[in-house]
Write a structure and sequence with these properties.
Distance between the termini of chain A: 17 Å
Radius of gyration of chain A: 20 Å
Number of helices of chain A: 9
Oligomer: homodimer
Strand order of the largest sheet of chain A: 2-1-3-4-5
Number of strands of chain A: 8
Number of domains of chain A: 2
CATH topology of the largest domain in chain A: Rossmann fold
CATH class of the largest domain in chain A: Alpha Beta
CATH architecture of the largest domain in chain A: 3-Layer(aba) Sandwich
Shape of chain A: elongated
Structural class of chain A: alpha/beta
Largest interface: A-B, 59 and 65 residues
Largest sheet of chain A: 5 strands, parallel
Helix content of chain A: 40-55%
CATH superfamily of the largest domain in chain A: Response regulator
Order of helices and strands of chain A: EHEHEHEHEHHHEHHEE
Strand content of chain A: 15-25%
Chain lengths: 235, 235
DNA sequence: ACCCTTGCGTTCATATTGGTCCCACCCAAC
DNA sequence: GTTGGGTGGGACCAATATGAACGCAAGGGT
């Protein structure tokens, strides 16, 4: 029906190897991204950007730490901008200074993630960015005001609670396991049958996962009655 | 409770005097902003920025047109970034090219307003920016993740009006995607076949889009039978 | 000119699911 | 033992696509 968009090429810029690895691992767990490289300081980050652009495989996104041995993250952002590279930046840093936050946003940082963070927080920010990008990647090269607003809205969507009420960890994992093991899309009724839980409960968890962008929600047509939602795990 | 925040100093960059005046007038009608100057081309805009910064009254926000006689708006944004000035940019332009939109957001444009626009739209974007700024101007110099998220969320445009009855978001999206990807005009029957939905449903959504002026409706004659409506996506 | 054919527009009842409210049950804390 | 929070599930109403039936506007033959 529709073609899968190409993965978003990500450069991780982080001087602590442990943290850099963690970011890379987290990244792999989210669909739609591919790790294009890692840099431990500002100079090598800029070099990697340049090389990737010259190789015809430009970086799309940088996960940028602010505290680096040679350059400050804001300086790196400035260098990137003056180079005119079309790369987006998500700041991932322990710096909580409001001035830095403001300056980062002025410099075109699209998300600002404060360390330490949970995987859920990380995944949410990245998923927001992925949706934002997909909305602006439409084949029609022109945008309406509504298109732009919707794209920005998905980029800046507010935070979701750690785990909303009415949801339990065990049931959630059961649903996730079922979704992962199931090849095609699956409906709430089918989850009900497979797991022996009620339709209401199945729907509650599936909707949560859909809101979290970890499953894709589509509608099944062709039969009378209200269309049935189907949920598909995103690899 | 707390003192009134100082007004946000705005520089209007627009080559057409009429439009520049309009922006200035609109700006006066919104609280919390003060017009710091007007520039008709890129060079004078950069000069004005520099002078304001040296005079100790830096510009906070630029309303930036993309099409200027000497420099492109994106170039101006790039110059500003490489200068390291902490100034935010709202793009106000007739350019609807998605590449430009993406590049603008990468360059740190916080809002993108497509001309022509209504005063309500203009006021909404500016008010959003004002709220965003106020949230990051808190006397506490440190931010939590929640603070940052809330501030970014206020930059986000509120969700569009709810859909009329009998229409669902997902189905509408499917129809829109199909229309966008289809070059020529398309009939209700063809939408039925392509999406696997019924003719009645396809027509309901196409009629809605036609009423919203987002698709153009024409009639096809020449074949036996009642003339068939065709719908064409408007770029 | 008239009528028949043809295929879409329109309306309505129906089927089936989504969404919400509220209660039963479980478990932990006191 | 009692109380309180929280999860799961039944019941109900709302929502939405479908299918059939009818109406309508054009083409084409007599």
């Amino acid at each position: 029906m529709n073609t899968e968009p190409p993965p978003i090429r990500v450069l991780v810029v982080e001087d602590e190897p442990i943290a850099a690895d963690a970011h890379a691992v987290y990244l792999q767990r989210i669909g739609g991204f591919s790790l294009a490289g890692t840099a431990a300081d500002g100079q090598s980050a800029l070099r990697a950007l340049q090389q990737a652009a010259e190789a015809g495989q430009p970086i799309d996104l940088i996960l940028l730490d602010m505290n680096l041995p040679d350059l400050h993250g804001l300086d790196i952002a400035r260098c990137i901008r003056s180079g005119g590279l079309a790369v987006d930046i998500i700041a991932i840093t322990a710096v909580r200074d409001l001035k830095v936050v403001r300056a980062a946003i002025s410099s075109g940082v699209v998300q600002y993630l404060i360390k330490p963070f949970t995987y859920a927080m990380f995944a949410e920010k990245l998923a927001n960015y992925r949706d934002f990008r997909q909305q602006l990647a439409s084949p029609t090269a022109r945008a309406s005001q509504n298109d732009v607003d919707l794209a920005l809205a998905s980029l800046r969507a507010p935070t979701a609670a750690p785990l909303p009420k009415r949801l339990s960890e065990s049931t959630l994992t059961a649903v996730v396991v079922l979704l992962k093991s199931h090849a095609g899309p699956i409906s709430a009724s089918e989850v009900m049958d497979r797991l022996g839980i009620s339709r209401v409960t199945a729907r509650r968890y599936l909707e949560y996962l859909a809101d979290q962008q970890t499953v894709r929600r589509t509608a099944r047509y062709g039969t009378p009655g209200r269309p049935e939602n189907e949920y598909l795990w995103r690899g």
